[in-house]
User: Fold this.
Amino acid sequence: MDLRIGVIGTGAIGEDHIRRLTDVITGAKVVALSDINIDRAKKIADQYNAKVYVTGEEVIAAPEVDAIVIASWDPTHAQYVLTAIKARKFVLCEKPLATSAEDCKKIIEAEIAEGKQLVQVGFMRRFDRGYRQIKSAIEDDKIGEPLLLHCVHRNRIPGPKHTTEMSIKNSVIHEIDVLRWLLGEEYKTAQVLIPRSSRLAADGLRDPQIVLLETQSGVRIDIESFVNCQYGYDVQCEVVGETGTVRLPDPAAIVMRSQGALSYEIFSDWSDRFIEAYDIEFQQWIDGVKQGMVTGPTAWDGYAACITADACTEAREKGTIVPIEMPECPQFYSK
Ligand code: NAP
Assistant:
């Protein structure tokens, strides 16, 4: 039987996930949705034959809905996740789990109180083939112990509501999660450097930024965040180990020889670049939920990422190196 999904938020990624759940994923169907922009929700509901609700809370409570996808604006995530936990429904929440570690902690406490893991966070890079190959190379000792990581996260242009803080809490949070997963350890300190800003950045937006993280074992990580790079969506990651290096492959694209140049296309956004990762993430989520399990990144991973993102924000605001205090992971979340 198909798992009946309710989707909250039908903007760019919400609509893409509805398409994915309908056309690509097996064992699921979208039956209900909501968006603050009701006209948009109605249009998409008509297209996919789903029922429209006015609020996300109504989607969660709907008796015909088995599990929830949250793809609304970041500040709404925590409230919907808490409501889904109360309703004892599985929920895949787009990153970030919340806009502060404090709100993530409330989610952790609620989930533990319910006595069942219900929450998965949309850290889809863990399902990307390139990152998985890097993880295997590290675990199979192909490059020795990792020492340094050099990462780049560039977007062509930011959304109209983008802020300096969001470059880390909404965007670099992907690196914060995937690098913690790649290395299998927590962070110790955070620092943020602010170079001269691009003249193309909106007033008040500091862009680019450089995030420097240090792990518990002393691995040093630099992440360039540049949300206004203009030329495309570009994610890079190189791990330097004791005996070799490994780096993310450039996404598969045709190579063209034309007009005196050798070239290939660079994707313009995340939806194409990580399309395979999202598909795998959703198929595994549906398969796990049908068995009553969360198999992907948990609420604890969402919490750990937000603790780190909050430390980065403090580091940027104060212009200092900030220690990262990571609480011990409760037994409830240890796999
Ligand atoms: P978007 O296009 O702005 O869509 C967000 C949608 O949620 C909009 O339709 C917005 O309406 C609606 N919304 C706002 N408040 C709401 C509420 N209280 N209840 C229900 N709907 C509400 O943004 P997006 O790019 O799709 O991003 C949505 C979420 O997905 C964000 O949290 C983002 O971080 C995440 N995301 C994740 C990835 C990834 O790689 N995993 C990629 C992109 C986005 P209005 O437009 O009227 O405000």
In short: The CA atoms of residues 187 and 281 lie 25 Å apart. The chain has a mean pLDDT of 97.
